Amino acid sequence: MSSPTRNPGSTDSTLASAAEDHSLVSVPTSERRSGYQLALSPISVATALVVFAIAGFTVVLAGFTVGLIVGVIVAGFAVFLGKALGRMAFETGMSSTVTSRFFGFGFTGSAIGSVIFAFMILGFLAMEAALLYQGTLLMLDLPDSWAMRILIYGLMTLLWIALAIFGLKLALRASGVLTVVTLLVTIYMIIQIYVIQGANPMDVFTYGGVIPGGVWPRFEAAISVMGATAGTIALVTTDFARYCRTRRDVTILAAAGPITQNIVMTILGSLVVIGGMPDVIDYLIDHNAGMSQEAAAAAGSTFVMQNTGAFFVIYAAWMGFITIYAAQAKAQAINAYSGSLSLVNLVNSLTGRKPGRALMVVVGNIIALGMIAAGILEQFSTYLAYLGAMTLGMCGVMIADFYLVRRARYNAGTHRVEKWNWAGVTTLVLSGAIGMALMATDVFALGFLVSFVLSLALYPMLRTWMPEGTGTSFVAGEEAVTEAH
Question: What is the model's pTM?
């Protein structure tokens, strides 16, 4: 992507460069960073309100012990995915969806991966905005009217756009402080529950969950909620792995998000959600005349997924309310940022045009608003499971292409890029469809894991039958990607 002649010291030049953030080119060596610096970005996503909801809901369903065991397993799986995909982005210096042009899907075929990734990350952008909206209504005692939706969602959307428009630097600068604030307020809530109010933490550690039956039904329920997010955090990590200096930095980056999301947040979320549930139930009874204890208990469990901010509001009042906005500000900046990268690749791979990343930030936020209007929060669990089948299928194809077929060899000067890698596209469609069908028919609740395993197994076989160039042509190297100046 050629750069127009400009004065390097001008404000316009600086803002334009920050906004584009190498969206279609390889990150130059001079801008590479350490894994510890970059780790702030996935940690920001991993401490968001929606992750708090996922962690708490997992334990509500499966109990603390099973939930934590599943958290450790999913964290290990996500670290593996993040490291495997992150090395590819490190080699190419490009985002996850642009890297999929080189490994797995081809130049035009990468549009499919862009749609999957955009739907995933913009779905999280939408869900977290919806959780914030519910918390705002609760804190300020506002009616859920169309006027209020337009006002609150409109202001939030403008904030996400402003934060994401200038790319990685602002997000990284804010992430450290805001993450610490979020964790400190969460600890304050835990102190309120267990020290000041005298709740017994052993009630959390011995909590058995609401799923009846033995260990397997609870284990399956926990995996079905938490496991589907492994591909999500891995693909987000991949977008930042292109900034790594060394492979060791890739490993550090790949470990940060999953450990925080699946282990740290499971423990913290359990302590707040399980220990705080009695007060949430009392709050609902006090604020809803005529509500029974049973109805309040059922509504309290629903709050974990549909109004997670209620726990912060009830226990920390204005401090908690401000914190959930601070927590979301840094996470939403990353969500909007990654979503815009995916949309840039989508437009470029289909049309050959190079849209501005800033414009795609705006488009991504508009798409997220459409998802909110469609009721994405009410379909949270289903959304995660079906999304997991596609994201893990995509991860599997890219990993199989790079490691199993190409034996982890990549040379920017000689690597040929097909317009369509039909073996990869076919593998993704088949593995994703089978995984979703297994879940839709209740044959196997963990169909997204089947999608991943199938993609690893199918792709090498299909690549043998459909070698490079089958049914397609190759893209010129300078068209596939232009090195940064």
Answer: 0.82
